[in-house]
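re: that chain from earlier
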Amino acid sequence: MTVRIKRVYEPAEPDDGYRVLVDRLWPRGLAREQLRPDAWLREISPSHELRRWFGHDPRRWQEFCQRYRQELAHPQAQAILADLASRARHGTVTLLYSAHDERHNQAMALKEILDSLAPGPGVA
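^ sequence. v structure.
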């Protein structure tokens, strides 16, 4: 299974595979024609309340991940996660995010969740 994460401001590459924007809001300064994700999955992005509470504060990272997993427990989100995991088993899925912090963002949390659905080699 191959799940990657990438900032939206980095150029697209052929080995990105299925590119998925996982931000609730469209990234500032980017036209849709520039980013061209295969999907924009706002449904699995953190709620506005959770995003505001977290504020990309690394001290809140562990609790953010726990709260985020709780938000993703509903059936619609579970179906989307299952689809992404399936796509990752057959090719590369790249989760796109706009946060400045490369270690503490929803794409990293989603990658960890997807990795836990089907752990194995090949995760970048």
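Residues 75-90 form the longest helix (16 residues).
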